[in-house]
Write a structure and sequence with these properties.
Phosphorylase Kinase, domain 1, six-stranded mixed sheet, 26 helices, 704 residues, Transferase(Phosphotransferase), domain 1, four-stranded antiparallel sheet, 4 domains, alpha+beta
Length: 704
Amino acid sequence: MGTVYEAFQEEPRRAVAIKVMRAEVTSAESLRRFRFEAQLLARLQHPGIAQVYEAGTWTEGTHEIPFIAMEYIVGAKPVTEYVREKHLGLRDRLMIFEQICDAVHHGHQKGIVHRDLKPGNILCDATGRVRVIDFGVARATDSDLAHIAQQTMAGELVGSLPYMSPEQFEADPHNIDTRSDVYSLGVVLYEMLSGRHPHELATSQIHELARRVRETNPRKLGEVDQSLKGEVEAIVHKALDRDRDLRYQSAFGIGEDIRRYLEGEAVAARPQTLRYQFEIFARRNRGLLAASVAMLLVLAGSVIITTTLYLRSQATKERAEQQAARAQAAVEFMENMITSAVPSEYGAEPTVRDLLDQASDTIGETLRDNPEAQIQLRRTLARAYFSLLEVRQSADEVLTAFKLSSSSMGPDHSLSIDIGSEALWMCSAVGMSEDALEIAIQIEASQRNLRGPTDPVTLDARAALAEARESAGQWQEAERELRALTTDLEATLGPAHASSLEIRASLAQLLLKMKRDTESLEIARAAYEDARAALPENDRVLRWAKSVLGAALIVALQFDEAEALYGRQIPAASGFELVIQGDPNIQQDGLQLLVFWETWCPYSQRAVPALEPIFRDYRSSGLEVIGLTRMTRNSTEEKVRAFVAENEISFAVAKDDGRAWNWFEAQGTPWMAIVRNGRVVWEYSVSSPEEIPSRMIAALVRSG
């Protein structure tokens, strides 16, 4: 529609953004449309909509050129770019989207359909506040404005193609309503969460794009990112329904469902089945009834579903009847376990943990003749323990399920391998290194037998085995595996592939532990340079290679190069406003270990208390440990204080205003950094303090 300039208004004195229309839209019809647009924009007074200060025309030759002076947004970035650069988590992205819906809903209340919602028209300022701009293609929906001759001419496409609803491609102005904006919001939300467009955009042909949008369904969000399956996926795809009668009927509708999800309530996008209602109820209420019924539904359901899928592949009725009987036995076990959990047996009303413990203690004996059901129930118990942040118990359950599956179905069975992958991850996370090594050896052997040594799946299993050997202290064996793996990865995937680069960096890290410093630095430097040339700026493997090189440089006492590698100093105004314990000064001279954590994360629950020995061992040498977190809706000051009460570590809190994200990261696992005289010399996201290279810290404290 035009070009936007930054300008300065004399009275009152302020920066403004001026939108000037293109010369080709200065016909009499376009000017009428512009004047009408100005009237509409004057109606919109909302903190999430860029404020319009003035509208008018200026003469250039024989043409009247329309302009609009509006609020200038400092540091404005398209919303998709903002959430990506800030590395925001799911909750923060949804909270920003909730702001967007509120602003668009205000326009709908005023009778205005935006019709051009896209990331470029949804901006975030430096603090994360949303502004929806450019209602320039909006049209009135209420009757008092309908008579104005401003309709889009038949066949004219208004809006940005990738974000248009199916009905917008018909180019019929009478067929556009608030639900078209809902569809566009769905596309924007899909991109905010996945970084991808719901439809392939390889074609530049309008007709082909229109056909795809109108006749095909977008790729499921959960297929792009499995963590988004469930309620979030349902919300997005309800907004993207090709049938607008099945979409949310307004921006308020989708915004309200986002709010429900954030508050832990049932969302309208999901079928309101009894099972789903109980899941929500159990999530919000920890009493025995809610937990018992929800657990019965989930555990019994998992067995029934597994059995049903199994039966479909069986040829005989007899086998089907046997499996149905086993499924019924599993359901009866859960019913008996729940109904026997009376308060008198516990001395008080039993907790969810009591119920899980009872199931864990009795399931082996009760279902000794039904290993398939027992495996599934153990697996589900592991997930239930994990949801309570009982990570050691979770690891024990999934390890038991893995051993039972291996013995009853065989180590090469797909279920054994699948559960083994879960068990390996859990055992590694809680420090059960010997168990993790045993699992990794079995999975690697199974994949090698099934697929061969250089299949991509086998290569992943070999990498996991090398990591398990390193964690278990088998450094020489781990080195041999990493070197062989490097050769096979480069031959199979190429030397610039992320997997090849990751293994090279891991080899450098291992050599650093083995005190082969010169060789480690050489490999780390080459891996980082190759990763920087081949991978995107924020790629996980690139960050890993960078952290390994930083550690190797510090051990080699090359501090200036380590500082230059990261090239930033933590500023005084870093966004931390509330001190829970101690009086941390992140900018002071000396050595500091910074840990950015989040209270909900089980890794943080384990990692933060474990920092105390590091603090104790190195504080006499001048290393200060500072814990950093941020205050969110689910992380109150009381929760934070309770969490850090027993740790002799200073803790600072960032309010949820976005500024701290310029300097610190927190994406579930704690982010840790070494700061020397106020400058970052090493950083990475790790799951425990044991992953911080101890020789790097020793070199730092020796240097003073």
